[in-house]
Amino acid sequence: MTLEQVGAGNWRACLALEVDESQRRIVAPVAYYLALCAYGESPWGPLAVRDGAEVVGFVMWGIDPEDESFWIGGLLIDRRHQRRGCGRSVVAQLLERAAAEGHREAGLSYDQQNTVARSLYASMGFVETGELADDEIVARKQLK
Question: Domain N-acetyltransferase, which positions (predicted)?
């Protein structure tokens, strides 16, 4: 898995990503996340997830201006590539990046009904904080 900036050569492939039918209620479309990156108040940066030559997913990252924590958001893997470790690989790469840049903490949020995300993030050391961000559960992980 490789991560690359979303730009002229891959944005259409990102827009074409589809989640499983069961996830459509709890995962926003890539177009929504790209709008957040372009127009939102938060400093999100969009990344395409590649497996070889194919774009198989999308994720955003950003730095919280209040506490300098590294945030991961909008992670989705195309339905045809799920259950292959792609999401885990993306999160691991972003955590390595955050630690290398000197961030002490990583944060993310997910829909309360997204049990797949909850399980993945817990298995990677994220701990739910009791906070909510736009009605989503916030989880954080201390970085060493």
Answer: 1-144
